[in-house]
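Usage example:
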Amino acid sequence: MTMVDEATHALTPAQARARFRAGVSAPTSGWAAGYTQTNLIAVRRDWAYDVLMFCQRNEQPCPVLDVSEPGDPSTKLAAGADLRSDLPRYRIWENGELRAEVTDATPYWSDDLVAFSIGCSFTFETALAAEGIPLRHVEQGRNVAMYTTTRKCRPAGRLHGPMVVSMRYIPAGRVDDAIRITAEMPAVHGAPVHVGDPGALGISDLGKPDFGEPARPEPGDVPVFWACGVTPQAALMASKPPFAITHAPGHMLITDRRDDEYRVGRQ
Amino acid sequence: MTMVDEATHALTPAQARARFRAGVSAPTSGWAAGYTQTNLIAVRRDWAYDVLMFCQRNEQPCPVLDVSEPGDPSTKLAAGADLRSDLPRYRIWENGELRAEVTDATPYWSDDLVAFSIGCSFTFETALAAEGIPLRHVEQGRNVAMYTTTRKCRPAGRLHGPMVVSMRYIPAGRVDDAIRITAEMPAVHGAPVHVGDPGALGISDLGKPDFGEPARPEPGDVPVFWACGVTPQAALMASKPPFAITHAPGHMLITDRRDDEYRVGRQ
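Running the assembly step on the lines above writes:
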């Protein structure tokens, strides 16, 4: 699969969202370069407090950038966006089971759904690339690799589950830089949660991610793991709320916010 | 009033909390130097979602550092602390009206109260002082001055109100440094919301703060305004939930967390 080409890279966020609204479906890594992408999770109002508390207690995987009023499919992060249709792919969940993957969630929407927009590690990829740190999954035209770990999130009400991480192979000599750069962006997962041995997170095979696609390391690369906004989906699977809509992993909302806005002290 | 002396400055957080539990009541600025202090707001469970949403939507004045389960007076921020008694002074609110100011809130507690611990600008005072920026209110032994502004917070459900700010006089030549230092601490209000003319925030007289005490400027000082954790109290007054307990302005919870923990990229 080829995700990134000159054309999608140069799109404005509104142009990208219009393509997805029209039915295009692709992972969004590399699209509308320089603009922040977000994870989506929408639950019924009677579960919204649990989700918001879960996010507050697990800010590194679940940094909340916006929350809608019940039923409102708009977001302050993207002018004119419709959260029901402007992401390239959605997952529909019932009682913790994945029921459907669709490109338009409008038929599943209801007026008691509360939508959470959660920060995404794609945001800091711009900053990493700007300092010359290679991104193997982008070079190789793949979705980023994500893994469910054995680290438990702090529960909140009825919501509990494991932390999910994204992994990037980083040249050993640039790991310090990658830590420094991402530490400055706490609203989009911040510094890595782990560097090196995948076994420490309970990951047995980097070649078999739970979400996304595996990337090939280059000689001298080290695996570096960041908390991931797919964590709420793992919590849905574990906690089984009656209904939820999420983005499909890697298929994000492209917002109007510049990635730089989430870099502390650099605005 | 003299708030700061060698003895209180050198106390551990647990020792300070024990004094307050025993009935001592004083503003906490300068106590247990180097440890983070937090604002308290506790509301009934049926208002907790509104408060949490309000804080998410107004993160600069209301950065949430911890939320309790309903009825639980403990916090992960301070081992063994009892939120009902370990702050030096509390305010009891009914329908948006201040009903009582007490040194022990235990008689007012109930098992459906959810307690929010919110970041406080005292946290960044350590960082300012460490870089040689003078703190006039500390020098003068006063509580920091706080003002209700004409800036509106983004509403959330039933909760709405104005932003409250704390003000510190800073030597003109150090304002840039103060901005840089506090911008690195977004979990405790971050960079100033305004520098200079108080009228731009609708403040008519710096000598008459709405909370706390006025400080005297030194020649060449400029007023610098930071978003303030008393903002939820202004929202209580405006939004009139049936019941709430808060700290009294300036009379904070002293946590076990080091101020440095809230400095991005410096851990």
